[in-house]
Amino acid sequence: MTMDDSHTSRTPNHADPLIQSLQQALGPDGVVADAAEVEQATRTCIPFREIPQILVFPTSVQQVQAVVAIAARFDLPIWPLSTGKNWGYGEKSASYAGGITMMLERMNRIVHVDEELAYAVVEPGVTYRQLNDHLKASGSRLWADSAGSTQYASVVGNALDKGRGLTPMADHFGALCGMDVVLPNGELLETGGGAQGCNEVRHTYKWGVGPYLDGMFTQSNLGIVVRAGVWLMPAPEEFDFAAFEYKASPDQLPAFIDDLRELVMSRAIRSHPHLANDFAMMCILAQYPHDKLQGRRSLSEQATAQWRKEHGVAPWTFGCGLYGSKEEVRYQRRSIRRVLGRYGMVQFIGAAVRDDWFGRSIRYFAPLVNRMLGKSPEFTDVMIPAINLFRGIPTDDFVRQAYFRSHSEKPAVDIDPARDGCGFVWIGPVVPFTSRHVVEVLRLTREVFERHDFDFFVEVIVESPRSVIILVGVFYDRQDPAECDRALAWYQEARQLYVTRGYPPYRVSTMSMAGAMNPNPVARQLLASIKQAVDPGNLIAPGRYGTPPR
Q1: Is residue 241 domain-shared with residue 368, that is, in the same domain?
Q2: Run of H or E including 246
Q3: In sequence order, which ranges of 298-414 are alpha helices (DSSP H)?
Q4: Percent residues over pLDDT 70 in the chain
Q5: Nearest to 283 by CA among 424, 488, 383
Q6: 450 plus 504 within the same structural domain
Q7: In a domain, 407, yes or no
Q8: Residues 54 and 128 in one domain
Q9: What contacts 24+ positions apart, CB below 8 Å, involve 292-301?
Q10: Do 335 and 390 lie in a common domain?
């Protein structure tokens, strides 16, 4: 584990047989061995970093296979990444030092889009923006769900790490169907249970024959996924967007949670909203009010309340998409207004993205309405990006929150929190979707924040009608070793607390991957046995998600 960014630069030895072999396989532009360049490329936002020996950028399946063969010959591990934009989870850092980090961002072909059956076949370097732009340019009727993190995240990479979106297709791993995988021995596996090279349903039927293989390559190190099918969503006949602000008393929160679950269970809410607390909303709307700290390391309850009032932020806020026929969307509106209206304010503003007189009117009057409601102008700024996310249109507007404490302003373009020294880290325990569990986890979480003197950031993400993800995070000074230590201590206590109470995280960062499977020794041993059989040299990402390190 490295708590600082110190790295000794050295001039690469181009006579090195390893570098020569890689350059011969990939070309000079496909290999980065200069220590300073490698260091800069692998900076992180989390309080943990390991620096590889070499970065490689293959452009084809054959080049991936060549790198695997070279790594085996030189006995060097490979850490594969798609685009490395998993902000707050480790970015381009492996869980160990040295070795080869394989960046797949140049393998960015959209191989096929099937309009009839609503799926695409893409390489791991294809980003949400690229796929969305392709669908739009081709006049497609299809929408692709997007992660809310950044438009430059990998479609395949996010799905393989069980990332989430917001539309009815929010389960990104669930949308994967049929993969091409380079195995540690260099062979190319086609999942889907049919004949190699002749399986017409491998992107339309998930299960194939025999054990389900696609799942073996999610959050795993058993191979390198170089192509995958991803299911898309036909554009609905009707779309709307509900913006909700919780105005009820805190003692009504349990009833609200249970009513929200029933709306999801009955499919009156078909999207996967993020219920954000006041601090999480303020991260998006404003810069950190350092002047309100008054010598503290975090805001007092009174200062938070004052800050919230200045910007017109509710204790809890969320948005959700409405999809279906005109009749279905009318039913969703009625249900949402009837149920959520008991707890706060509901506005249906999905028409704001339409290019007609009604949409233009909403956009024109939105600033005035927000002022009348006591809200800051920033609410209007995020309205369209928020609505569009529920239409599968990616944005960088919300990852800009990474800059809200460490910088004087949020950049409008060229957003790269790791490069720019932003410090933040996430953890997301999965919790049963009942008020008993959710309220208890929120209470326990707040106590951990208070013990480590961080501001309480939380989003309750609707994972399904049966479970939610309690996404929590801290923002800290990445340049201050003491702040890094404090953030790491917060993370370690929170993670241990959740696991001990039976709420495992849905994904983990590189700084906790080594112990990811420790709570389940039987599963850990089974995975170790599979790893030994498939990858006896422990070549691909050793230690990833709890499999044996080198």
Answers
A1: yes
A2: strand 238-246
A3: 301-311, 326-340, 357-372, 378-389
A4: 97
A5: 424
A6: yes
A7: no
A8: no
A9: 296/453, 297/453, 297/454, 298/449, 298/453, 298/454, 298/455, 299/455
A10: yes
Which pLDDT value is given to residue 85? 93
Structural domain including 76 reads 17-103
Total tally of structural domains belonging to the chain:
5
Q: Tell me: do 453 and 366 sit in the same domain.
A: no
What pLDDT score does 108 carry?
98
Beta-sheet strand order (sheet of 100-103): 31-32, 54-56, 100-103, 78-81
Evaluate if residue 220 carries a pLDDT over 70: yes
| Whole-number pLDDT of residue 470 | 98
pLDDT over 60 at 47, yes or no: yes
Tens digit of pLDDT for each residue in 505-527? 999 999 999 889 999 999 999 99
> Which of 366, 395, 424 represents a domain boundary (last residue)?
395
Task: Please give the share of the chain, as a percent, with pLDDT higher than 90.
Answer: 92
Cα-based distances in Å from 502 to 191, 445, 491, 519: 33, 14, 17, 10
Which domain CATH number covers 22? 3.30.43.10
Q: Is 312 exposed, middle or buried (0-12, 13-18, 19+ CB in 10 A)?
A: middle
4-36: pLDDT as tens digits: 444 433 445 556 999 999 999 999 999 999 999
Whole-number Cα distances in Å, 449 to 63, 209, 440, 471, 485? 46, 48, 15, 13, 14
**Domain termination residue (choose one: 103, 118, 138):** 103
Determine the average pLDDT of the residues in 491-499: 96
Query: Looking at residue 344, which CATH number applies to its domain?
Result: 3.40.462.10
Backbone angles phi, psi at 143, to 5 degrees: -110, 145
Region for residue 484 given its phi and psi (left: phi exceeds 0; alpha: psi -120 to 50; beta: otherwise): alpha
Going by C-beta distance under 8 Å and a sequence separation of 6 or more, which residues neighbour residue 318?
Answer: 244, 273, 274, 275, 276
List Cα–Cα distances, 7 to 11, 36, 178, in angstroms.
Answer: 13, 8, 41
Are 179 and 242 within one domain?
Answer: no
Residue 407's pLDDT is 93
